[in-house]
Amino acid sequence: MQDLPFVIVAGGKGTRMRPLTERVPKALLTVAGVPLLDRQLDWLRKQGVRRVVVCLGHLSEPIESHLATTAAARGLDIAISLEGDSSLGTAGAVRLAIERGLLVDRFLTLYGDTIPSLDLAAAMEHWNSSGAPALLCVFPASGQRDEARALVHSGRVTRFSRHPLPGEVESNTHGDYGVAGFHSSQFAHLLPWVRGGFGTIHADLARRGDLVAYDVGVGPLEVGTMDGYKRAELIWASTASSNDGISSSNL
C-alpha cells in the first residue's frame, strides 16, 4: 500500500452544493468541523497509503495552500495535478496526471466527495487474487435509480451504467462505492484535454469481463449533495470516529 499511488479526483465545481461552494471549494467544506479533504487523507494514512495524487481544477489555489500546510504532518507524499477550469471530468483528470508522469502502472482512485470506510488492504488482496485488470468497489443497491449502476455476476461487473435506464435499474445489483483500481494503460484511448468520466472506462472494462467487484456491504458517505452533506454532518457529529473513519454500521 505504501508504494501504490492513490488518486483523489477533486476538480469539480460542486454545483450541487451551491451556495456553499461559490467561494469555498467542495474539498474544503467542513464535515463536523474537519475539511472533507482532511477526512479523506486521514483515512488514507490509516490505511497505509503514503503516495497521493490530488487532481484539482475549480478553486484550486486554497486547496493547494491547505495541502502545503497539512501534508507533511500526515506523513504523506502528495503530488498535485492541475487542470485549471477545463472541467475534464474524473477520467480526463486522471489521464492528464498520467501524461504528466504522476501515475505509472496500477493505482487506486477516490471521488472527491466520498468519505469511505472500507478495509483497503482487503480490497487490494481481493483485486490481486482475482487476476482482473481493474477493480470496482461496490455495495448492494438493487433497484435504486440513483445508486444501482452495476450488474455483478460471479464476482465480476458485467455491466456498468453511470445513468441507468429504467430497465437497467431493475436488473442492476450494486452501486458504485467511489473507490476503484485501474492501470494507466486503460486511459490511453482518451484524447488529451477532453472531458470524460470513469463511467465510460468502467462500462468498457465490464463488457470485456475485466472488472472485478469488491462488495463492501454498505455504501459510503457521499458529500456531493446538500442532503448528503447534512447527513454526513449529523453522523460525524454524533458518532465517535473509529480507526478507519466512522463505523460502517452508521452508513
What does this structure look like?
This protein is 31% helix and 25% strand. The two termini are 25 Å apart. The protein is globular, with a radius of gyration of 17 Å. It is built from 7 helices and 13 strands. β4, α2 and β5 form a beta-alpha-beta unit. With 251 residues, it is an alpha/beta fold. The C terminus is likely disordered.
Give the structural class.
alpha/beta
Share of helix, binned: 25-40%
Number of strands: 13
Uncertain residue segments = 240-251
Largest sheet: 9 strands, mixed
Top keywords for this entry?
251 residues; alpha/beta; nine-stranded mixed beta sheet; two-stranded antiparallel ribbon; 7 helices; 13 strands; 31% helix; globular; disordered C terminus
A few lines on this structure:
With 251 residues, the chain is an alpha/beta fold. The protein has helices at residues 36-46, 60-74, 89-99, 120-130, 166-171, 198-208, 226-238; strands spanning 6-10, 30-31, 34-35, 51-56, 77-82, 106-111, 114-115, 134-140, 148-153, 156-160, 174-183, 211-215, 221-222. The chain is globular.
